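Session log. Operator J.P. requested a structure for one protein chain; no other inputs attached. Running the standard single-chain path with token output.
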Amino acid sequence: MICACSVSVEAEIGEGTNFYHRGIGCAIHARAVIGKDCKIFQGVTIGSKWSNGIYSGGAPYIGNNVMIGAGAVILGDISVGDNSIIGANAVVIHNVPENSFAVGVPAVIKKL
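Structure written below.
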């Protein structure tokens, strides 16, 4: 059960993906794709991006077995590779390769 969140029914969410702490405060864009067996903590935003007043329209693709820490923000037409970790409160606006971690604002990406 998830509550106090905005998860579009059009978003693709893979089998085995869990929203921890009931997904409180999460916002998931209609065009978002989230793979299998992901772990998503509270307050996560997976959405589109505005830049210089222009709406990108694209939403993130999240691979399989990705952990997204509390308060993380993943924006735009980007991808997060399989087995990656997004740290708490990270702001991710660039692709994250598989087996990597992203932390900070804006996120710095390193291989695991």
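Operator note: The radius of gyration is 13 Å.
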